[in-house]
Design goal:
By secondary structure, the protein is mainly alpha-helical. It contains 18 helices and eight strands.
Length: 463
């Protein structure tokens, strides 16, 4: 036989004989052959951490005996150590609320704990997935908690990558601080700026996003575990909800806290939406920065070519020697994906009714997926692109000197209308603003040299 027979409230079903999951998960496997996508490892880790904490707390409350507790805890530790990952088989698109995923964890842990105690898989008289592993829990308070815990686990790996990206932009800001170039607004000539100043803006932008994500992370430490089915805590000891965050803190080192309102914690996905929205907002800015870098590196002969990007691969199958901004293109695509994932989270967030949001599985999947792919993409952005950017100082200075907008510095001396006339004549006759001003004796040369000093024009109060 390559299967065993298990029974649930709907009847009997064949389960693969070597599976650690059971009948309820087998039904989910058969019901939801949708995407082939399985839960993220940190989603599984967060789930098992909650299961382990629950077993320990229920033991302290004398509701789960030591033998069962020790077996469940050992099973949890094995999963947390990397074993049985292939046993979490429910598609990410599944029944509402995440009951199938919850039972996947319950059944895997129960069957492994049964083995630890010398029993056979499927003999739930030894340890029961619902009565023992799921004791004092409901999918309805477990999954919101897993969303928060898994998000924090992934954010704690994501933030260091963002911090390194900020450092790289800051390093380039110092390296390029002396490089004078033309500013551009509306993609038209603007007053001079230093290349380092542009990069300092990128660094500050990333820093701002780090601060915002940290604040949302703090909000996510408030857990509604202990609300059970609808927030009232039915079937849980009154002390359970107070003890669970403390137990999870012992297991993770993360200072979890009780939800301020357990009904809100189960009804609202605002915390998840905030994290997803923070990633979307970051993606919008990273897209903008990537587009800037692509534009500044355009060329090499017919574009701006003010900066040079590291060459990472041939850029064309037909045009020899062509090199594209491949890393930046990848980053843009991942950014667009993150923005799209947030759109799904937004729709799912508003789709809850009364005491529960049944769309939690897709919320959890999209947030964990976004944090994973964006962490990887931004690491590659730093290592394979930003760290290797070089400036073409000659091109930058040439554009700065040709820019007609440097006449802006003369408006306090000759007036706006006169300055506009100078610009028109310079453009019409393909001359520099300086040449026109000197030819027409509009400004004394010594004063002109002082006013149009490009470096002075990039500093506050020095023009």
């Amino acid at each position: 036989m390559d299967y065993r027979i298990e029974k649930d409230s709907l009847g009997e079903l064949k389960v693969p004989v070597d599976a650690y999951y059971g009948v309820q998960v087998q039904r989910a496997v058969e019901n939801f052959p949708i995407s082939g996508l399985k839960p993220h490892p940190d989603w599984v880790k967060a789930t098992v951490l909650v299961k382990k904490a629950a077993a320990l707390v229920n033991n302290k409350l004398k509701l789960l005996d030591k033998k069962k507790t020790d077996a469940i805890v050992k099973a949890c530790d094995e999963v947390l150590g990397g074993k049985f990952a292939e046993q979490f088989v429910v598609d990410v698109f599944q029944a509402g609320a995440g009951t199938s995923h919850n039972m996947n964890a319950n059944e895997v842990l129960a069957n492994r704990a049964i083995e630890i105690l010398g029993g056979k898989r499927g003999d739930y008289s030894v340890i029961n997935p619902n009565d023992d592993v799921n004791m004092a829990q409901s999918t309805n308070d477990l999954i919101p908690t897993v969303i928060r815990v898994s998000s924090i686990l992934l954010v704690d790996k994501f933030l260091p990558v963002l911090a390194e990206l900020e450092k790289s932009f800051s390093k380039k800001a110092k390296e390029f601080d002396h490089v004078i170039k033309s500013g551009r607004t509306h993609l038209q000539d603007a007053t001079p700026i230093r290349l380092g100043q542009e990069f300092s803006g990128y660094a500050a932008c990333v820093h701002g996003h780090i601060d915002r994500i940290k604040q949302i992370r703090e909000d996510l430490t408030h857990l509604g575990i202990g609300g059970t089915a609808v927030g009232t805590g039915v079937n849980a000891d009154p002390k359970y909800r107070e003890m669970m965050p403390k137990q999870l803190e012992e297991l993770t080192g993360i200072p979890f806290k009780q939800a301020k309102n357990y009904f809100e914690a189960m009804q609202s996905m605002a915390g998840a939406a905030s994290m997803s929205g923070a990633l979307r907002n970051l993606a919008l800015d990273i897209t903008r920065i990537a587009n800037d870098l692509r534009l500044l590196s355009s060329g090499p002969r017919t574009g701006l070519a003010e900066i040079k990007l590291p060459a990472v691969q041939p850029g064309s199958s037909i045009m020899p020697g062509k090199v594209n901004p491949s890393i930046l293109e990848m980053v843009n695509m991942v950014s667009f994906q993150v923005i799209g994932l947030d759109t799904t989270v937004a729709y799912a967030t508003q789709a809850g009714q009364l005491e529960l949001n049944v769309m939690m599985p897709v919320i959890g999947f999209n947030i964990t997926f976004a944090l994973e792919i964006y962490r990887n993409a931004l690491h590659v952005l730093r290592v394979k692109c930003v760290d290797g950017i070089e400036a073409d100082e000659e091109v930058c200075r040439e554009f700065a000197e040709k820019s007609v907008s440097i006449v802006t510095a003369l408006t306090p001396h000759i007036g706006y209308l006169k300055a506009a006339e100078v610009v028109k004549e310079a453009v019409k006759n393909d001359k520099t603003v300086r040449e026109v001003l000197l030819e027409k004796n509009i400004v004394d040369k010594r004063l002109l040299d002082d006013i149009l000093d490009a470096h002075k024009l990039t500093e506050v109060g020095r023009h």
